[in-house]
Design a protein that fits this description.
heterodimer, A: 279 residues, MetI-like fold, 0% strand, B: alpha/beta, Rossmann fold, 8-stranded mixed beta sheet
Chain lengths: 279, 308
């Protein structure tokens, strides 16, 4: 019994994964072919009807297709046929840009709200009303005013990632320990220097937590936003493959969305760990 | 009073009360200290000790009255008045050296890096933390943290050190060592210090003057007790000194009973002229500073203990 917890957990994880693949494989296996059928109808329906094959692809189909995609991630055969790498690249770029704009707006504004009770009270009703609005509800308004679908998607990312960052920054700044502020005050540290040398490092873990929540939400929203605006991106890819009735590609896209989302979260988690200080 | 280095003149602190009125924590408080003196304020919780200290530090403002330090009315915080906080208040994301450097840089903005570092290092050495410069506060024990707090306060070479129960969170042994350090540093540098405590022995060991405050709300400064123990007193034989128990009993009596009843017992108390108590005679004598000679003090002996 020397196996570490980590090792044992890995074994269980792998066992669960294999079980999942097995059940999936069995569930989507072809049944006996249907005997009597109009040949034209059979031709139209393909294997699904003639050999009782499930429309849902099995793990082997998905694996084969995934390998195909991984071999050529960046091909570009025109508007409706681009490699998954290109599609993901578009999505990540949109998320990155909208998220970056949100950081630029939310963190200084959050600082202001956290440091000034007046501004906090004054802006509170606006934030309370704007925060619960689904980011996609902004889409028509964005399309009408910006008149560019790509920019509208970026705007939607901006608007959905701004709130967690704004609220967490404001909370983190307002909750900085009084004694640390008092240290700065007794040392006659000016407001600006205090903001950068005391409040920012003290609130950084809370701010980064907000940023981590935001990147998660942004990645959730980009798929839906791209389904609406179309053209490029992993969300558009999902919808396009649905229209092509390629469930295999839809499953692959779902898998990749999950992996990219996890990576984004891990990056922010690492940043959070870097600024967290033990007390 | 010849040289009033610190002069607290009629300060009051009131908070809005429940029924529209105002509750005064303390009112019309007068207190003065000379340069190089070590003053300790003793009183129960809620008598406004910390508020007095915060007002002195400039972290709080009085509802009334002024505080004059070195001939100037204070306005807000100042690098001349360093504060050692009860909870040490180190910035946890900075190292020991970083915490001290932060203070040094705040005082001397034009200094180059090497000079700031060397200056900070001097004070880290002074409090005996050589070798721990690059540790974070979380890696230090409570006593070491408070040493950093002391080094940080001293590093800006303040005119006054203000200490708000600096050792109350420490265990008895560590507290003792740190009291020794603070006493040594204050004597060596001639530092004026103002400390809040509720530890009677700490006050007796450290202070030249002990300020007794009655219970709040409506707290007043009841007495100023002059410490009769010699300036070169040591922790080990402190309790063997002939005046020690008389002094200690006087303070404990005050805290136990008189702090509650002081206002009713002493209707004619003049907050501007607080009685100065000198201990060492068979009976407590209330005298002004001038009329007790050094010889009289020497004559007094164990009889002081027989005070009812």
């Amino acid at each position: 019994m020397t196996a570490s917890l980590r090792f044992r957990a890995a074994i269980v994880s792998i066992a669960l994964f294999v079980a999942f693949l097995g059940i999936w494989h069995i569930a989507t296996r072809g049944a006996a072919p249907v005997a009597s059928m109009n040949p034209e109808y059979a031709k139209l329906m393909g294997l699904t009807a003639t050999q009782g094959k499930s429309a849902m692809p099995g793990p082997l189909d998905v694996g084969a297709k995934l390998w195909e995609h991984l071999k050529r991630p960046f091909y570009d055969n025109g508007p409706n046929d681009k490699g998954l790498g290109i599609q993901l690249g578009y999505s990540i770029a949109r998320v990155g840009l909208g998220y970056f704009l949100a950081v630029i707006v939310a963190i200084p504004l959050g600082f202001l709200i956290g440091m000034s009770p007046l501004i906090n009270r004054a802006l509170d009703p606006f934030i309370q009303i704007l925060k619960p609005i689904s980011p996609l509800a902004w889409m028509p308004l964005a399309l009408y005013t910006i008149k560019d679908s790509g920019l509208s998607a970026i705007f939607v990312i901006f608007i959905c990632s701004v709130w967690p960052m704004l609220l967490n920054t404001a909370f983190g700044v307002a909750a900085v320990r009084k004694e640390w502020i008092n240290v700065a005050r007794t040392l006659e540290v000016g407001t600006l220097r205090r903001a950068f040398t005391v409040i920012l490092p003290a609130a950084a873990p809370t701010i980064l937590t907000g940023m981590r929540i935001s990147i998660g939400i942004a990645w959730l929203v980009i798929v839906a936003a791209e389904m609406l605006v179309g053209g490029t991106g992993i969300g558009y890819f999902v919808w396009n493959e649905w229209n092509n009735l390629s469930i295999t590609n839809v499953i692959i896209a779902i898998l990749l969305i999950g992996i990219v989302g996890m990576l984004l979260d891990q990056i922010l988690a690492r940043f959070t760990r870097m600024v967290t200080f033990p007390e | 009073m010849t040289d009033k280095f610190i002069s607290i003149e009629g300060i009051a602190k009131r908070y809005p009360g429940a029924a529209g009125g105002a509750t005064a924590v303390f009112e019309n408080l007068w207190l003065s200290m000379e340069r190089g003196e070590f003053g300790c304020v003793i009183g129960h919780s809620g008598c406004g000790k910390t508020t007095v200290l915060n007002i002195l530090a400039g972290l709080d403002t009085p509802s009334e009255g002024t505080v004059i330090v070195d001939g100037q009315a204070i306005e807000g915080t100042s690098l001349d008045r360093a504060v050692i906080f009860q909870s040490h208040a180190l910035l946890p994301w900075l190292t020991v050296l970083g915490n001290v450097i932060y203070a040094v840089k705040s005082k001397w903005r034009g200094w180059d890096r090497a000079k700031v570092r060397a200056h900070a290092q001097t004070f880290i050495d002074l409090v005996g933390l050589t070798g721990s410069e690059h540790k974070r506060p979380s890696e230090l024990s409570g006593g070491m943290k408070q040493r950093v707090g002391i080094a940080r306060a001293l590093s800006i070479t303040p005119k006054i050190m203000l200490m708000d129960e600096p050792f109350s969170a420490l265990d008895a042994l560590t507290r003792g060592t740190l009291q020794d350090e603070v006493r040594r540093i204050c004597l060596e540098t001639g530092q004026t210090a103002f400390m809040i405590t509720h530890d009677v022995d700490e006050a007796i060991y450290l202070a030249d003057k002990i300020f007794l405050m009655t219970n709040g709300p409506g707290a007043v400064l009841a007495e100023i007790v002059e410490n009769p123990l010699p300036r070169d007193r040591g922790r080990i034989d402190l309790h063997r000194h002939p005046y020690y128990y008389a002094l200690r009993n006087h303070i404990v009596d005050f805290l136990v009973s008189r702090s509650k009843s002081f206002a009713t017992d002493t209707p004619g108390h003049d907050p501007r002229n607080v009685p100065v108590v000198r201990i060492g005679k068979p009976e407590l004598s209330i005298a002004s500073v001038s009329d007790v000679t050094h010889d009289e003090l020497k004559q007094a002996s164990w009889q002081g203990l027989s005070r009812p």
